Amino acid sequence: MSIACVKISHLPLRCEIARRTDLDAQIIIVYHGEESRPVVLDASPNARLRRGESLVRPMTQHPGAAVIRADETFYDARWHEIIEDLLNVSDRVEDTARGTAFVAIDGLSELYGSQEQTVEQISEATAKHDLDAQIGVAPGRFPAYCAAIRAQPFKPIRLPNSRVAVKEFLAPMAVDFLPLEARSTELLHDFALHTMGDLAAQSISALQAQLGSDGIRAWELVNGIDRTRLNTIERSQKIIDSFQFESPAASMDALSFGIQMLLNRAFASVQSIGKAAGRMDLTCEMSDSGLWDYSHVFKEPTDSATLAHSVVMTRIETVVQTDDSPIRSPVENILVELSHLGQGRAEQSSLWREEKTGDLDTALRQLKAKMGSLATKKIVDVEPWSRIPERRQAWAEVTSR
Question: Residues near 10 by Cβ (< 8 Å), separated by ≥ 6?
């Protein structure tokens, strides 16, 4: 099987460089984690930092570095755009991890003219994102990955459909690239088997005796044998809807109402197909032709318009407080796109059977008569996004429906 691997090394770093034109530091460090214990997510290669190490040492070693808090939602969004573009080239794409994807290209030559032109289509699909993607093509998943590692941006490496050629290509590469348990890799180094060529020269029985199934797997891979099949993904469904105000919304209440109406419609469509949305992209078009975009990836897929509305309004309440607020004029149109549609979290059914609601009504009336109206009040969300605590919730009557 001919497979193309698309790899973007240092994706978070490249995303930050692409969107921050003012970055002129020699070293850039992207961190994440708790504020009390921040750790490195990505960094400039010349900084020689490991992902996951504490930010304390890098700050001391590189005092002039630009230190940026990670925006992982933004990185995921950029990577998702690349995956969607790859799906426009081939319907067989495996999204392994953020920054690495595999594309099955068998049978596409009839569509694009040749394998070379197919690879060119993949290259064009990634080049427009300006993230310096590396592309490797080989008769197998693992050799394609190794080819991508050694490729230069905009210069794909294509290996012949030959086990001998693949074996020769892999020979100088370190055994650390093999998909083995850490202990197995350490043992290989202990036995002075540092490269894949060293490993290929060994007998399969000797490797099996020392490493078990890892030994067989490693021997096959370094000898150009890769039986791994792609775990392809399906093109994501999307729900797109828009709302136009009769007159531009100049107040927070009017904007909130329009967003609520739009989300109610969009999530009704999501519910109608029995799905839940994992991602929401919302765009506000303003009367001065300006745009405000907001993307949110839900921790768990949801079909709740109320939850989505609260998320959006919380963000809006935050940005309008800033001096350079992007929402600087009345909003005329709102557009929402719900994607990453999947199954939502299962919810327990109601404890109350329909025929028992009459008994609940009777109990509520008796409670009010005995203790007054305050005995049957409940707290409901009114403006949960508000920065003013008193506006977030209110008392409401308790009913059986």
Answer: 42, 43, 44, 45
